[in-house]
Amino acid sequence: MDPLTQGVLGASLSQSASKKQHLVVAGVLGLLSGMAPDLDAFIRSESDPLLALEFHRQFTHSLLFIPIGSLICALFLYHLFSKRCGFSFKQSWLYCALGYGTHALLDSCTTYGTQLFWPLTNERYAWNTISIIDPVYTLPILILLVLATCMRAPWLARIAFLWALIYPTLGMIQRDRAEASGWQLAQERQHTPIRLEAKPSFANILVWKVVYETESRYYVDAVRVGTSVNTYPGESIAKLNVSRDLPWLDPDSQQAKDIERFRWFSNGYIAQDPTDALRIIDVRYSIVPNQMKALWSIKLSKAVDANTHVKYETHRDNTSESRQILFAMLTGNK
To answer: Cα(224)–Cα(333) distance, rounded to whole angstroms?
Structure first.
């Protein structure tokens, strides 16, 4: 999730557990600790662009790391300001732990993938119940927290945290409805998917991207699950076969290894970009949910040596046409 959402969620739980006189400091401790796990974004390498993908949402996001991560936050924030506000170190650590502990669970509600049980396993958990940015989720929490702080009313923070639980639950219901529609689409095409997933489109839980895999291809469709269900059949693309699609690539080269690293990050949903044979895309993400315009990819090169890494590229599909198509889906228009 975005840093603001992570911060206000952490603050909502810390304020919910605080006394009236501790509300402000508890909120600040929860806010800052709720954002702290994303400091792993600073782990990166100029020569290896995929290193950041491997470490983001890894050890700092593990449930097993919460005591350590929150302790680091408490040590820093206690001496920075909470000690001067009359807080004991134990109190500071408690509120930091509450804020820090919300982060990984919220990230797991998105589609990106979070290594909740590292180092026991590097499996990426993604429950696909909420978009990585969703104002309908964030704004009520933020407003209630501002009111709770101004009025010194912990009960408002508890309502904020209750909303933080209710909305992903609604997303779970919506996800299951979208998946059911996706299975129906696949059946109508006489396909038997190996796997099928539904993911919320940008900033809402009304329109979903359904991705499913057959023996040779990936299919993407959009589904609007409101009072009725509208489907928007989309595109398909061949699954990446390295030996077939990239016959020139040395299997022992760093680029070949990086493809497998990118495959792990993308949960296997990778394909060759139809507009660029040297680009490998993550088919899970696009602004328009029934299209293959990926938001990120890796770029290969035939002109580099065997030890050179791939390039990591991001793509922002912010055209007015894409926004209009998504808006039409949100409003239920064909």
So the answer is: 10
Q: What would the two tokens of residue 230 be? A: 């509208």
Dist. CA 212–CA 298, nearest whole Å: 22
**What is d(CA 229, CA 240) in angstroms, rounded to the nearest whole number?**
32
* Residues 134, 5: Cα–Cα separation, whole Å: 9
Give, as one character, the DSSP assignment of residue 22: G
End-to-end CA distance of the chain: 30
Shortest CA distance to 137 belongs to which of 180, 102, 168, 110? 168
Residues in the chain: 334
Quick one: DSSP state of residue 205? S
Dist. CA 106–CA 126, nearest whole Å = 10
CA distances from 26 to 95, 137, 165 (A): 6, 22, 20
* One-character DSSP codes across 16-32: HTS-GGGHHHHHHHHHH
Decide: 267 and 124 in contact? Cβ < 8 Å.
Answer: yes
By three-state DSSP, how is residue 213 classified?
Answer: strand
Per DSSP, the three-state class of 48 is: coil
Rounded to an integer, what distance in angstroms lies between the CA atom of residue 61 and that of residue 37?
Answer: 6
Residues 267, 296: contact at Cβ < 8 Å? no
Q: How far apart are CA 87 and CA 93, in angstroms?
A: 10
pLDDT tens-digit readout, 71-96: 999 999 999 999 999 999 999 999 99
97-118 pLDDT per residue, tens: 999 999 999 999 999 999 999 9
Burial class (CB in 10 A: 0-12, 13-18, 19+), 262: buried
pLDDT at 318 over 90: no
